# Entry
Amino acid sequence: MSVTLDLQITSQLPADKVLKVIGDFDNLVPKLNPQFIKSVETLQGNGDVGTIKNVTFGDAVPYKSAKYKVDAVDPSNYSYDYSIIEGDSLIGILDSINHHVKIVPSSDGGSVYKQTVVYNCKGAEKPSEEFLKTEKEVFESNFKAIEAYAAAHPEVY
# Structure
């Protein structure tokens, strides 16, 4: 059994810039939103498919860590997929969490950030509505923080 969470955020930034700033997520979010993510450490790989990273979460999140694996990187289609494979962020009831990120260019020169999160349950127990609401708020906050940073630093992005 699985539970799906969909997130969609309209951005003023073009898709290529959104993808570029997402590529800098590991460095930016711990600086911009340390209450959610304290650090991201690469354990294996160079960012491409198969790379494994460890995330240490901040005090505003009800769990401490997650290990994730990069599943797909497709810059030409503005997409990035990864899976949470270990850690207490699996809340004892999940086998894994799959994240599918796609940035869609929009006609006004901006883009739409789309993220589908699939929570793969071990059994019949599902993540609570409160848990899913918190997850969505964290994803939105992190995206808006890196988007604002990119808009304020056009020379970098």
